[in-house]
Amino acid sequence: VTDIPLYKHLLGEKLREHPFGGRLSDPVDIQDVVDLLTNSIVESFEQACPLRTAKTPYNHPWWCRALEKQKTRLGKLFNKARKSKAAADWRAYKANLRLYKKDIRRRQREAWRDFCSSIESTSSVSRLNKILTKDSYHNPASLRREDGSYTDNLTETAEVLRDAHFPGATTTPYPNWPETIPFTPTENDWAVACQVVDVARVTWAVKSFSAYKSPGLDGIIPALLQWGLDVIATYLVGIYTGCIAFRYIPK
């Protein structure tokens, strides 16, 4: 479970070390702020929600201490009946066995009802169903290509999305990306960018996302943006404004 107040505090502390204000001077400056914001969000989240190994004394959610006691008692009754070979002991064992099986079925039904009651939306069920019905080899980040094969990593997934939405587009290898774009925005370019992007619009856009929608290549889910919106809104506005003015897309 994510400690949201701690996440917001950590994010604020990290960004406070790098205050933001005014226009971004060039694409390199934009990329630096993007990297700063991305790293700050991811690091704050990892600290506020460290990975833990779930520990439970039972292998099944419906198993409980009462069933454990019944199982122990049943074993003792069986051993007693096997040694004595008395009909009364066997009857006692079989009666407890029937009761034990009945209680197991009851606990299984209760556990299933509890699970169904804990589901808050149909979207989460649909997403889980899609994941479980796929071959376990294909993780949730996989996409199906036109030839029927599946992508094996995020890079291949991004390429499939690129080809689907931007047919004919090519990707420049990362090491060869230019650090600067040969374009100098005019005051009119900045004016247009400022008309398109402001805090209110960015806030509306971020809040319109489904909180736990699948993340992009940066691993950031919308909930992380929403929880820290008060802290990161000005950074987002600066990034988007600079991108429009310089006609630049961050790496």
Main sheet attributes: strand count, strand direction, barrel closure: none
Discrete helix count: 10
Rounded average pLDDT: 85
What is the domain tally? Answer: 3
Rg over CA atoms: 28 Å
Distance between the termini: 31 Å
In percent, how much strand structure appears in the residues?
under 5%
Protein name: Reverse transcriptase domain-containing protein
Transmembrane segments: 227-249
Organism: Photinus pyralis (Common eastern firefly)
Keywords: Membrane, Transmembrane, Transmembrane helix
Please give a quick description of this structure:
This protein is mainly α and 251 residues long.
Written account of the structure:
The protein has three domains: 109 residues, no CATH class; 60 residues; 33 residues, no CATH class. The two termini are 31 Å apart. The protein is built from ten helices and no strands. The protein is elongated. About 2% of the residues have low confidence. Helix 1 packs antiparallel against helix 2. It is an all-alpha fold and 251 residues long. Keywords: Membrane, Transmembrane, Transmembrane helix. It comes from Photinus pyralis. This is Reverse transcriptase domain-containing protein.
Q: What's the layout of helices and strands?
A:
Blueprint: H1 4-16, H2 27-48, H3 65-84, H4 87-118, H5 122-133, H6 154-165, H7 187-196, H8 199-207, H9 222-227, H10 229-246
Helix pairs in contact: 1-2, 2-10, 3-4, 7-10, 8-10
Keywords:
elongated; 0% strand; transmembrane helix; mainly alpha; transmembrane; 3 domains; 251 residues
